[in-house]
Structure prediction request, 227 residues.
Amino acid sequence: MPTLVFFLDVDNTLLANDDVKTDLDQHLKAVLGPELTARYWDFYEQVRHEKEVIDIPLALKRFREETPLSQMDEHTYQQIHSLFDNYPFYKALYPFALETLRYLRTLGLTVIVSDGDLCYQAEKIVNSNLADAVEGRVLLYVHKQDHLAEITRLYPADRYVLIDDKPQILADAKKILGEELTTVFVQQGKYAAAQSPDGFQPDITVPAIGDLRNYTAGNFFNPKTAR
Prediction:
């Protein structure tokens, strides 16, 4: 029987990361005020530009090092650090995210393949119950599309399905894996209205992650049947 492996992104695919960032911003402003909060997000963007990936621990470290104790004492810093360490990510899951993972598991193997730092992103995936939902199959990279050969060696299958909110990642992966891969664009988060690069069209487009519960294994093997 032909086998399926689903590779699922996390941020804005299974979990509403844009909403998390907005919520954290409000909490930071309540503790730090608007000026120091803006400074933190400056470090956040600086680190993201340098490493090409979001790295919360490094952004917090730089924020501490570059902010005098006269502006932010150690108690306040530990308070904001705790906001990130103890954020209830399970509350930020998209509707039917866990149910969708359970459904897809009846069709094939589910694997979370996420971009992000190895510390904070891993905690997010565990604390949101996503790691349990995929039975611990979690891979973290700076750019997942650069590791597709490695990933497919780990999880061999007749057909791979990449589920992501970023058209560019889907397009890059399609160039590498070709007809072995079915690309699924989930129109959630800030990239929901993004234009597909270089004329690329995802094989399947859905407005929400929960919509994938209506798709059969045959739809993923032959996406034309899903249109």
Notes: The CA atoms of residues 43 and 59 lie 5 Å apart.
